[in-house]
Structure formats: structure tokens, C-alpha cells
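Input record (one chain):
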Amino acid sequence: MSLKSVGAESHLRIPLGALRSVHHIALNVADMQASRHFYGTILGLHELAGNEIPSSLRELVALGRVANFRIPDGTVLDLFAEPELSPPAADPTVQFTRANHLAFDIAPDLFDLSVQILHAHQVKIEGEVVTRSTGRGIYCYDPDGLMVEIRCDRDIK
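The corresponding structure, as predicted from the sequence alone:
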């Protein structure tokens, strides 16, 4: 599918229902060991190890800069070490963000169209399309500056 096939008169948007699920949630954490303990030991999430770790993240995991957990519904929680992260306010009701990015999964045949639509709406894009052994992704920003990834698995033909 291409942008031309969408039609010049249509309202440009990624087709309704094309974003199939939240693929992963990525959080910045100041203390990786404390966060691994919280999500793995206290909350009981399964920490990915060995071949479960996506090949594109294995080096960062080995360096202690990333940890990955799988939630029972299949959603992945990625923790990114940011030791210089400013602490939140002492009052826990004060809003702050530790989110790194929110990632949506899309079918491989709709990925290029989604990139074209982001460009057509002049959405701020971070870099270019990223291609990894696990698939492709593009990073953009929502109106509040939260990074959003639209990604697809590798298109196997």
C-alpha cells in the first residue's frame, strides 16, 4: 500500500486498527539494579535472558545498560539505565515522566505507509527508519514530546 492509494482527498491517518498492540514500553531508570529487583523480584515479571533478548539489545544488556521483562500478555518492558536522571519531586503526587518511549506494532506491509503519513503531517521524526534483525522502526514525538515508536517485525517472504 502506498500514500497514493490512500487518495488525495482522504484524511491522512494510519488506517484504523493498523496499530495492532503495544509492542513494548521503555522506561528510563536511575538505578538499574533496584529497578530490576522491583520489576523482576517484587512484581514477578520474567526477565529475558540468553536468546530471549532481542539480538539488537544483547550488547546493551551485557553492559548493564538495558534490562528486558515480558509481561504475561506478551508486552515487553524495557528498562534503560540513565544514572544522571533527575529524581522526581519528594511529593509522589507531582507528575513527572520516566518514559523513554511507547512502541506500537504494525503489520510489515503497512509500515512504509505509516512513515509516509507521519511525514505528510510533518510529525517530528527522530533520525531515519531503523532496520534491525528483528524488524524496522521509526521514532517520532507526540505533541507533548513523548517519543513514540512505530515498528514491525521483519517481513519474511
